[in-house]
Design goal:
55% of the residues lie in helices and 19% in strands. It is an alpha+beta fold. 38% of the residues are buried.
Length: 404
Amino acid sequence: MLIKIAWRNIWRNKRRTIIVLVSIVIGIAATIFMDGLSNGSLIQMLNNQINLNTSHIQIHKAGFLDDKIVQNYISNYKGAEKIIKKEKQIKGYSKRVISFGLISSATNSSGIFLNGIFPDDEKKVTIIHQCIIKGENLSGKLGEIIIGNELAKKLNVDVGDKIVTMVNSFQGDINSNAFRIVGIFQTPNSNFDNSTVFTNLKEAQEILEIGDNIHEIAILLDDSKNTNEIKQKIRANLSNDSEVLTFEELIPLLLMQIDMYKQFSWVISSFVAIALIFGIINIMLMAVYERVKEFGILISIGMSSKKIFSMLITESLSVGIIGTLVGVIAGLLILLPFSIYGIDLSIFAEGLQSWGIGTKIYPIPTLENTIFLLFIIPFVCILGAIYPAIKVIKLQPVNALKFV
């Protein structure tokens, strides 16, 4: 009976109720949209980092990431490679030779990271082959190289042009080699495109004079949740001077940023809730002052303060639940097409690519924040009704009946 009366009461003044509902719906929908956009950007940045270069697990000689000199190759990687080949959870792996060097064209030069790879193996680990915008990927022939679009612009070169790379060899000599550009790639990360080139593994090993040794093995898994398990298996088959690192250890700052955002999203939702609480208090006070005589009559005929208090709380809670459910559904429905087709932000391409996000963002709402909104807004509506409800139960029937 109490719920039925409360339901009728909230629709006495339809305009006021609709205004409250609309404010709740807009606040929640906007919060979910911004949450999805921010979370999607960070997740996209993480996935791009993994799929471009980092992968889920990397094997190096200990200290290689701090000092990428030619001599820091993996001393005995074949034992680990046997384990990698047997492990069913591994989607693919790629052996790499990596060295800092200088690349020159007829008009300009630039510092680069020269990556020697097996093209077919690299396809199983990264998306570089999918990012070719001109020419083609490496075929395995001698003298081939692919470079990033930003680097091609800096060097003023195109597919078919010749460039020269210079690197320090194992013996300390400076070796140079001429390559013909067979492909130009453009990834979501402009910094990567500006500093990274790929050539065939055997040729890179010859230039660096390191025999059949490699500097890195990049491993991609079917499920990133298994990284620590696979890491331990590989670690057991490597010499003590080698290290096995997961993507959490390779890009800790990015993962920390994602965790910080998840905490901060709760703060944003709390601010929305705080803003709504004042609106709820204001609306409920107006409703109370309009019905002072009614409350006086109810008290006079014996209706308990507890029931009157409960009725007002139920009215506010009903509005909060309806607004929250509609707001969450509206927010998710608005996000749905954008999460499938993305939001094209090409106008901000330069800034987004410098962060490694890409020109299209695919929003992903966080489950934690959505659940938080589902509970916090109705709770806020209860808090917003407490003060007006206390004002009502303190009314004296005689004074309430005289209220104009």
